[in-house]
Amino acid sequence: MLLHIFAVRHGQTYFNRYNRLQGWSNSPLTEQGLKDAERAGHKLKGVDFQAAYCSDTTRAQVTAERILSMNQASDPKPPLQTAMNFREQFYGYFEGQDMGMTWWAAGAPHGAKTYNDIVDKFGLAATRDFLKDADPFHDAESDQEYWQRVEEGFALIAGNTDLHDGGKVLLVWHGNSLLSLMHRFAGSAYDLSERPANGSVTSFDFDTQAAFAQAITLTSYNQ
Question: Going by CATH, does the domain composed of 2-90+144-220 fall within 3.40.50.1240?
Answer without folding.
Answer: yes
